[in-house]
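Methods: holo model generation. Sequences were used as deposited, without trimming of termini or removal of tags, and paired with ligand SMILES retrieved from the corresponding compound records. Each pair was processed once, and we did not select among multiple samples. The sequence and adenosine-5'-triphosphate SMILES for this entry were:
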Amino acid sequence: MAEVKVENVSVRFGRNLVLKEASFQVADGELCVIVGPSGCGKTVLLRTVAGLTRPLEGNIYFDGKLVNDVAPSHRDVAMCFQTYALYPYMTVRQNWEFPLRAVNLAKEEIQQRVAKVMELTHMEPLMNRYPRELSGGQQQRVALGRALVRRPRVFLLDEPFGNLDAKLRVELRATVKRLQMDLGITTLHVTHDQVEAQAMGDKIVVMAMGTVQQVGTPEEIYEQPANLFVAGFFGTPRMNFIPCELKRDGGRLFFVHPAFTLPVPPHQVAAVEAGISDTGLILGIRPENVSISASPQPDAIPVEVYVLEPQSNELIVDLAFGDMILKSRADRDELGFEPRLNQKVYARFASDFIHVFDRESQLRIA
Amino acid sequence: MSQEAIVSQRAGPATAVEAAAGLRDIWWRRILFVPTIGLLILLAIVPLIFSLGVSLFNYSLGSRAIWVGLRNYINLFTDPQFWLATRITVQFTVVAVSIEVVLGILFGFVMNQRFTGMSVIRLIVFLPMMLAPFVVGLFWRFMFDQTFGIVDYLLTQLGLPAIPWLIHPFWARVAVVIVDVWQWTPFVTLLVLAGLGTVPTDLLEAATLDRASNWMKFRQIYWPYLRFPLLLALLFRSIDTLKMFDLPFILTGGGPGNYTSTLSILGYRQQIMFFNVGMAAAISWVVVIIINIVTNILVRLITPAKAEQVHTGL
Ligand SMILES: Nc1ncnc2c1ncn2[C@@H]1O[C@H](COP(=O)(O)OP(=O)(O)OP(=O)(O)O)[C@@H](O)[C@H]1O
Ligand SMILES: [Mg+2]
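and the model returned the structure below.
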């Protein structure tokens, strides 16, 4: 068990700087999810923590002790490789026993651990198969299991559910989260799935293009995204972004768009005034914070129903205004009416959930 | 079902035209084999059968061949010279090849490391293998010389007794083994390096993070990828040493006495010195049989058990 600190870590391959001054800290026993699109440097970051990749600069600390020069085998981390890296000439059981035999664990203990992981990953009928005799998803569970049998200082899980079917993925998500909590082992969990990140993380590190975009709890990341990238990455459908200008009229501030004018919510006025530059801003509003009604409302924008996407008990409505599409999401029974295609309706933004970003720097203003 | 139908079925969706083309294709392929097979028969099988035939005759060059049946073989098996040569040949093979394999593995692992200057070291290490055995024999004979040789010079400098390398029955054999090891360890090293190159890095990384000991890594990670190259090395080296001729011939001339005379040297003497072609052919057939047995045993021993079969890409 250990607190992990990553400090200004940069990694270079040839001419490419694939990790740029990444910094974050994971408390002892915390489950930290590292999330970002493909190729953003998640695996590289994990390998650097494991010691398999040497950083160009920056430091890694375990429990406050610098481990830059500690060999990978002495860092006591268990890694689930994205490529699985299963030992091809060992059965599933032997693959799992390998790390335990390596440290001369007692026979009964080995059997117990393997049995436990076998149960968690539903591998009972496959224990004596060789990796090549397993499907991709089964191989992935073996890879995950080979990490979970250990009791290391840090778990490093690199997209451990990437190849599983939706049902198993959701199940294992909960299983791993619970196991991690019970064991209290610090975990870095990599995924490119924002839902998984939200579901599992005590803390989320959002990455893009080799840089850390934001570090925070799932709530912080969702409610106060640090920039346009983070705002757009979390949430389905993604946040609506509407380019606006700011206008002062008789002591009040307004967001101005060719199709509408909205007063800046009172609690945001100060921040907007302080943060605004003359490049304009982008107003962000999540689909679930856009409500629609059939009749005009104060501060509502007249729009037209463009596409209807029913989803179980919810309805996602694409609304056209000007040359833009605004997405709205609502419980069907809370809508109060049945929207039809091309119907003229009115969209209202929940004023407590308006996000304001600078158009140039893309950073959050309010 | 007609053959045409079978062909078209195998080729997937096929029209009659394509099926006919497929059939022509098969015949064409067979025809292409004819020169190869013809050449093989002419160059390999005919001499083989001829030598088998000769071994059943008392045939000296320049005289008439007389049918003696198995008499050559019987004479051979009752000749202590033959048994000595067999023993020496097997000794050379077992000792030299074992040392070459062990050293080859060691060198392979050392040279698999990456650091600057490695390419130069590799070149130097592989040099002996590139020399003609004749040259190797000559300069080692010089180095082993009791009066002028550098080996004994170094030994005496170290305060050790000089060794009568090429004239003592035991030390002469040691000398042959040393030179064979010197020349052919690089070959084993090369094959080990090739095998090491096929070990997937992520397996090594996984084993490292799993804190496997060096022995576990060698046995569980590297070994399956080394089995096949090592089998090749063992086969090539065993076959080569079982036929060993030029090295002892130049280094010691088969002496002292006959203590470095291999089967090949024995056969050579029969033919060249005693003009006994039939006997020489018989000896060469004994060598062929020994090699065959050894090869078969090796292949059985080292062919990966099903469980350990991995695709090595070799
Ligand atoms: N060994 C390497 N040599 C050169 N470039 C590399 C190497 N490993 C990774 N990269 C580059 O570093 C960048 C980040 O790679 P990384 O594997 O960390 O992505 P990732 O975030 O894990 O993506 P994914 O979700 O697809 O696994 C990529 O642009 C990749 O091309
Ligand atoms: Mg990756």
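The mean pLDDT of chain A is 93.
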